[in-house]
Description:
The protein has helices at residues 53-69, 101-113, 188-192; strands spanning 4-13, 20-28, 40-45, 74-76, 116-125, 128-137, 140-146, 169-172, 175-178. Helices cover 18% and strands 33% of the residues. Mean pLDDT is 81; it is low at 1-7 and 16-32. It has one domain (9-192): Carbon-nitrogen hydrolase (Nitrilase/N-carbamoyl-D-aminoacid amidohydrolase).
Amino acid sequence: MGSPVYYRMIMVSDSMKQRLWILPLFVLFFSSCQSRAPLTVAAVSCESRIREVEFNLSRIEYWAKEAANADADLVLFPESGIQAWWQSRENRQFAESLTGPSIQRLTLLAGELDLILAVGMTELAGNKAFLTHVLLDGGGVIGTHRKSSLAGGENGEGRVWDQGNDANVFEIKGKKVGIAICFESVHPETCRA
Length: 193
């Protein structure tokens, strides 16, 4: 385990219609941090509409700009925020690769705003579709995590999405971070990895 590090958190939400101010939080990182500089994280809870990728991208863009104006370094968006989450195989029609137009568009946005974005999507990889969270900046994809603990197993999310099998740690601005998507956060093996 690494040494404790303070970071700042900004929380924003469509439903709140206002920004909650920056809160000091205490966190343990996976390994020792190379940087003592604070990392300001914006956690966004915004509306995503099924079958409306353009609308969803516009919400991500809006909240990324709000987070940049609040001096965030990293902006976290919800699971499947690009395509929206609904438990139907129909969502595979909206799946995109990591080199698709949505990730290209968000990479440009991250570069313009000098931000790191963590965005959820339905990723198309060959004939498989994963619930994936993508960490990216203006240089492109830093890393990804494919959800490995699908809620409801084969009778739940497993009917729609394929199970991932990774647990990655990424370095951003001298800090080590990992990603757990929704149901994974209640499984200690995800965080232990």
